[in-house]
Design a protein that fits this description.
Blueprint (H helix, E strand, L loop, with lengths): L1 E9 L4 H8 L5 E7 L3 E7 L3 H12 L4 E11 L3
Antiparallel strand pairs: 1-3, 1-4, 2-3
């Protein structure tokens, strides 16, 4: 099971609304909204394909500028 932490950069003043939207995604947990319109989130997926799909979906959320990988690991279940 891949587990990743990402930093989502949002347009100015939009981080709270983006965080609310992506908190609804199954497999994504919001860990905080930082200054400068950044969101820290953790992605847990069944496999790498699902993980990539979730990251791609984050890129498609309105007011998201970028998604940067901060940490990645494969967990054994």
């Amino acid at each position: 099971m891949p587990v990743s932490s990402v930093v989502v950069q949002c347009l100015e003043g939009k981080a709270d609304s983006v965080a609310s939207q992506i908190a609804e995604f199954e497999g994504i947990e919001i860990h905080g909204v930082l200054p400068h319109d950044q969101i820290v989130a953790v992605i847990e997926a069944d496999d790498i394909t699902n993980e990539v799909d979730l990251v791609s979906a984050l890129h498609d959320v309105k007011n998201v500028v970028s998604v940067r990988l901060a940490y990645h690991n494969f967990e054994d279940i």
